[in-house]
Write a structure and sequence with these properties.
Chitinase A, domain 3, Alpha-Beta Plaits, 4-stranded antiparallel beta sheet, elongated, single chain, Trigger factor, domain 2, alpha+beta
């Protein structure tokens, strides 16, 4: 049993008492384990006399019994009192137990107190509306794109067309490399789509990829020949398409299936968005440093899940940052639950009980969930179309490099190439 005999600020002094009967049982348990593992001449394993074991290992036995009692009592104390420790190493002056005697000792715990949470009411959350029909059509089009085919045409290449080419690398007049590009996808770098837009079979041109056409050290020039132009052919929207796309019998059934999937995915994303908005808002309103041992323990857990031997500094830094945020999230929601006097009944805990989770962990999980639900009930949630980011040239990777056409040894610039097609 244990009694809190002194409370001062965030410090609690606790007197622990273990019965003589239980202490004797622990002594017997430790002796049996030592005897089992001990190999002494003249004695079979497990048959070493107690007097010899006590003489050689008496202090070790006492220390193991003391440590066992201390860990058991501390675990039960934290479970009952619902404490978060500021330091994972409480102060103690523990005398070693004596076999057959009751065992009394004191420990001083420093408690961590999360600041009383502020800014939890009326949090503004903006969520995107669900454009169901648009989402369904885009999903169907994505299916059609995956089932696309191409047919040869006798016309200049345009947007979406597949252009088949032969490439003669610089300095090589015999060996060719065959490849294709689909106009509009910038598959081999900026500027090349413009070079083949309007192209027809047998067209030949020379080009190089350059960053600054005025440089003296020019990149090599490559020669290309268009061998074929193909236009995309999308499958018809009919029952046959539905069966090939998703294994359903009709186009109507496909639409219903897509609608169900879109709604489910949207609901999941909105739940995440709302909860993420809440966490970001309350953590910004309540800055605090959590106990270091909690962050370190979770960091080690993340690293162990990765299964990496000797993770690099970048991985360690990322894991610690993630752990820090998760611990702060856990503690601030816990503080909200305490402030709002949210309680979890024993019946609810009993329904969730498992060998993988302690009662205190279940209580924290369910209580934090209720705290989140309470904050969301009080939040100011509105629908708003997300702003579309206008992509600038600087946003595009390697946008300063582009393919430029070379004619009569006089290259065009990247700006001249952009938007120019073949006629």
């Amino acid at each position: 049993m244990f009694d809190i005999i002194k409370s001062e600020d965030n410090r609690r002094t606790v007197l622990f008492t273990e019965s003589a009967e239980n202490i004797s049982g622990l002594f017997r348990k430790v002796r049996r384990q030592i005897s089992k593992d001990l190999e002494l001449p003249g004695f079979r394993p497990g048959k070493v006399p107690r007097s010899i074991i006590d003489k050689q290992y008496g202090n070790i036995i006492q220390a193991e019994v003391a440590d066992s009692v201390r860990q058991d009592f501390t675990s039960r104390l934290l479970e009952k009192e619902d404490w978060i420790l500021d330091d994972n190493d409480p102060e103690s002056k523990i005398e070693l137990p004596v076999d057959g005697d009751a065992y009394n000792f004191e420990m001083v715990f420093s408690l961590f107190e999360t600041p009383e949470p502020a800014g939890t009411d009326g949090i503004k959350i903006e969520i995107p509306p669900l454009n169901l029909e648009d989402a369904i059509e885009k999903t169907i089009e994505s299916f059609r794109e995956k089932m696309i085919s191409f047919e040869t045409v006798d016309k200049p290449a345009g947007d979406g067309d597949l252009v088949l080419l032969e490439a003669f690398p610089a300095g090589n007049t015999e060996e060719t490399q065959k490849f294709n590009v689909r106009i509009g996808e910038s598959q081999i770098g900026a500027g090349f789509d413009e070079l083949v837009t309007g192209a027809v079979p047998d067209l030949e041109f020379s080009a190089r990829m350059d960053k600054d056409a005025s440089d003296e050290d020019q990149p090599p020039v490559h020669r290309f020949r268009v061998t074929e132009v193909k236009r995309p052919v999308l499958p018809d929207l009919d029952d046959e398409f539905a069966e090939k796309a998703a294994g359903v019998k009709s186009l109507e059934e496909l639409r219903n299936k897509i609608e169900e999937s879109v709604r489910g995915r949207y609901d999941q994303e909105i739940v995440y968005l709302k909860e993420r908005s809440v966490i970001d808002s309350i953590l910004a309103s309540n800055p605090f440093d959590p106990p270091e041992y909690m962050v370190e323990n979770l960091t080690h857990d993340y690293i162990n899940r990765l299964g990496e031997d000797g993770p690099g500094q970048e991985t360690l830094t990322a894991a610690k940052e993630l752990a820090l945020n998760k611990v702060r999230e856990f503690l601030i929601l816990r503080a909200v639950a305490v402030k709002e006097m949210i309680d979890i009944s024993d019946d609810l805990i009993e329904k969730e009980i498992s060998s993988e989770e302690s009662e205190s962990s279940i209580r924290d999980r369910l209580r934090n969930r209720k705290a989140m639900e309470l904050i969301l009930d009080r939040a100011d949630i509105t629908e708003k179309e997300p702003q579309k980011n206008s992509e600038t040239e600087a946003d595009r990777p390697d946008s300063s490099w582009c393919w430029i056409q070379v004619e009569d040894a006089k290259p065009e610039t990247c700006d001249e190439t952009a938007g120019k097609g073949k006629s």
